[in-house]
Amino acid sequence: MEIRRVRANDGVLLRGVHLRMLADAPDAFSETLAEAQAMSAAQWDARAERFGSGAKAVAFVALEAGEVVGFVAGFVGRFREKAMQWDVSDTVTLARAWVATEMRQQGIGRALAKSVEAWAAEKGAAVLEAQVTENNEAAIRFYAKLGFADKGQREPLRSNPALQIRFLSQRLR
Q1: What pTM does this model have?
Q2: Using alpha carbons only, what angle is made at residue 136 by residues 151 and 141, rounded to the nearest 5 degrees?
Q3: Backbone angle region of 141, left / alpha / beta, with phi > 0 → left and psi within -120 to 50 → alpha
Q4: Residues 96 and 29 sit within 8 Å (Cβ to Cβ)
Q5: Is the four-CA dihedral 24, 73, 89, 122 of positive or negative sign?
Q6: Mean of pLDDT over the chain
Q7: Does residue 126 carry a pLDDT above 80?
Q8: What's the rounded Cα separation, in Å, for the pair 10 and 26?
Q9: Three-class SS of residue 12?
Q10: Residue 80, Cβ neighbours under 10 Å: how many?
Q11: Least confident range of 6-15, 83-92, 102-111, 141-150
Q12: What are phi and psi of 87, to 5 degrees?
């Protein structure tokens, strides 16, 4: 198992993993499968470039035998009201966490989350935040094991407003 940062030239890789993620767990993400499918190669390349620069965003993939089996992103800022607040520099949002169904319960999610946590510490963040869909009990337990606490804040999930997302956080320092 290899965990590595997404690079500036990983547009094709990003598209592939996002299509898998969104097909596997459509109610876990704000982006929809149709939105991801509609993105051009140039848009995926731009996303990879943003992650690759590491300035305000980072992403990590877990690879097994060369195949992506996990993904996570981190963004300097806080997610509120269906949008990132990029000016909140003391907070990093852990987002888009996903592990392939057949690879779950092997520590991959923890390793990916810890990669974002280390990047957040490098950025000087004091708080790590995440969101989880209210009906995703496995993810709620996962984040609790990592030390995240429910902030009591709720918001409709952009991709399925019938569901609420829970806001979670943990102090880094």
Answers
A1: 0.94
A2: 65
A3: alpha
A4: yes
A5: positive
A6: 94
A7: yes
A8: 23
A9: helix
A10: 15
A11: 83-92
A12: -85, 0
Secondary structure of residue 8 in the 3-state scheme: coil
* Domain of residue 157, residue span: 2-171
Q: Are 58 and 119 in contact (CB under 8 A)?
A: yes
Domain count for the chain: 1
Q: Nearest to residue 167, comparing CAs of 106, 87, 85, 78?
A: 78
CB-CB contact of 91 with 74 (8 Å): no
Rg (CA), the chain: 15
* Dist. CA 112–CA 133, nearest whole Å: 19
* Of the candidates 45, 43, 143, 135, the residue with the CA atom closest to the CA atom of residue 95: 143
Neighbouring CB atoms inside 10 A of 154's CB total 12
Amino acid letter, residue 150: D
Q: What is the pLDDT of residues 29-61, one digit of tens each?
A: 999 999 999 999 999 999 999 999 989 999 999
What's 9's domain CATH number? 3.40.630.30
